[in-house]
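Summary: Need help interpreting a holo structure output

Steps to reproduce:
1. Submit the protein chain below together with the SMILES for zinc ion.
2. Request a joint structure prediction with the ligand placed.
3. Inspect the structure token block that comes back.

Expected: a single structure record containing both the chain and the bound molecule.
Actual: see attached output.

Input attached:
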Amino acid sequence: MITKKLLFHTIFMGASLLLTTGCVKTNCPLPDNLDHRVKKVHLNSYRESPDLKRNSWSMGSLCADRITLKEGSQTWKFLLVWNTSHPKGPFWYLPHDNEESAFATAVYAAKQYGGGFLAVESNGQRYVSGRDPNRNFKKDSSYSKTICRIIDTYKPSHLPYMALHTNAEGYLKSGGYGTVSMRRYSKNMHSFPAGNIKTGRKKGLEDEDTLIYLAGKQIEREKVKKFNDMGLNVKFEKVTKRSNDNSMSNCIVLYKHHDNYINIETEHGDVSTHKKMIDRVMKILGQRSIYMVR
Ligand SMILES: [Zn+2]
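--- attached output ---
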């Protein structure tokens, strides 16, 4: 009898595990006040999105909608993913579809802290029709307005505008583009390491490629120190109208009239460090995990 019961139990558990790992909630109703320029595109299956397919095992109760935004001749495609039981919370922008592990980190963040994220879909490529989605935040453009409106729908006003990126290992120029590293700095980009910087593949929080970006019109050393004290490397971008590169950070600082921007980066594929950084940044921002007793 016991073995029969056990067998039944095992089969039942196996079946329910299959059910929970085998699907992702999709096509949920969008929030009412979401930007009217946004169009919802029906997903016949989550398998239509490589990002969802890759992360289906960990999506839990998050829901994913595919949305589009038309801007001139360009149609931008996104996945809007949010925590349906805790929609208010930190919200992340993921402009680069080639930075795959950032998506896994965003899934973790939305499950752990509520809120959600918006990820550009571009067949796994960094650019969309030759354009960098993180260089398209022009003043008063429908792209900028819509993305900020979506973020504002989910994030409580006291939280910053936040982005997740990953970057290539090292600091030398590769393929004509300078890769992000704590070892690179310029007049407008200052490096504030939390401690010793390690080079090489995936060295965790001390890796030269593990860093958060802050941005503002002036360097705010007090703020930098808060993050450094938590063991996080900081790069601070000094933004001016003249140096404006139409990136999200520049848009927030120049046109949102506050310096409330954080981008969390690791080397490609280093999800465990990325998650650790999320937890530390959330602690600094006073956000508690939704799984903690309030
Ligand atoms: Zn990026």
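--- end attachment ---

Reviewer comment: Residues 2-284 form one domain. The chain is about 30% helix and 20% strand.
Status: needs-info
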